[in-house]
Design brief:
Length: about 100
């Protein structure tokens, strides 16, 4: 999964329809740490082009540990959707994903 959204670089340049995804994640106890990167679009990421320079974000959140909570990655995307940074972002499913 990833998001399609407009991002703003520190220079003020906006990139519409950027492909924004979690590129690294880890958890310890209830604490989760996620790294977010952006690419020009999904095809650029799939073809091995580098991430957009100047757009790399780190987030932390408290995981819900339990049988119905979902895995860390599922919870991470659900958490991101609650943040104003991701308001208006559209879900992008990758090959083989259904939700």
């Amino acid at each position: 999964m990833a998001f399609q959204m407009t991002i703003t670089l520190p220079s003020g340049i906006q990139i519409e329809n950027a492909y924004v995804k979690i590129t690294d994640y880890r958890g310890t106890g209830n604490n989760a740490f996620i790294d977010i990167s952006a690419f020009k679009d999904q095809a650029s990421m799939n073809n091995g082009y580098p991430q957009i320079e100047g757009y790399h974000k780190l987030y932390t959140f408290t995981m819900n540990i339990g049988s119905t909570a979902g895995d860390l990655l599922t919870q991470a995307y659900a958490y991101l959707k609650t943040l104003s940074d991701f308001k208006g972002a559209t879900d992008v499913l990758e090959t083989g994903q259904t939700s």
